[in-house]
C-alpha cells in the first residue's frame, strides 16, 4: 500500500519580457521605453524594427523571428490596425509551425502578456503608431 504522498513538480520558469505599458507611439518593456516599432523576444528586445514596405508585413521583415522558431507570434498591427498582414505571410508562418495571433497593438499587448505566462517561446512584433 502506498503512503498517499505525492511529489509536486512545477515547470521551470522560462525567461519572458513583460510589456509594462503601451500607448500610441510608445511602449514600455521591463522598465525601458521605446518610441519605434519593436520585436520582443523572450530574453531581449529588437528595437527600431522596420519593414521593407512600411505598413505591409512581408515574411522577410520577420527573419529574426523565424530564426528564433517561436511557438507563438503575436503581431500588433498598430493602434488603429493599419499594418497589413497579407494572407501569404500568415500562411508561410503557419506552415513553419508558428501559431500566429494578429490584433491591434493594444489587444496584442494584452494577449502577449497573458500568453507569455504559459508559453516559453513567444515573440511579439508590434507596430506602435497607426
Automatic annotation (TrEMBL):
Record's InterPro entries?
A: AAMDC, MTH938-like_sf, NDUFAF3/AAMDC
Per the UniProt record, one Pfam family is: DUF498
Q: Which PANTHER family match?
A: MTH938 DOMAIN-CONTAINING PROTEIN
Name the record gives this protein: Mth938-like domain-containing protein
Organism of origin is Thiohalocapsa halophila
Amino acid at each position: 500500500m502506498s503512503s498517499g504522498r505525492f511529489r509536486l513538480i512545477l515547470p521551470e520558469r522560462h525567461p519572458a519580457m513583460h510589456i509594462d505599458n503601451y500607448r500610441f507611439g510608445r511602449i514600455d518593456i521591463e522598465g525601458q521605453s521605446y518610441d519605434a516599432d519593436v520585436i520582443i523576444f523572450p530574453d531581449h528586445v529588437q528595437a527600431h524594427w522596420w519593414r521593407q514596405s512600411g505598413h505591409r508585413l512581408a515574411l522577410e521583415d520577420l527573419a529574426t523571428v523565424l530564426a528564433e522558431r517561436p511557438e507563438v507570434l503575436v503581431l500588433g498591427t498598430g493602434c488603429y490596425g493599419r499594418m497589413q498582414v497579407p494572407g501569404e505571410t500568415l500562411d508561410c508562418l503557419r506552415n513553419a509551425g508558428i501559431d500566429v495571433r494578429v490584433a491591434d497593438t493594444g489587444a496584442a499587448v494584452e494577449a502577449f502578456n497573458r500568453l507569455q505566462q504559459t508559453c516559453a517561446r513567444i515573440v511579439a512584433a508590434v507596430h506602435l503608431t497607426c
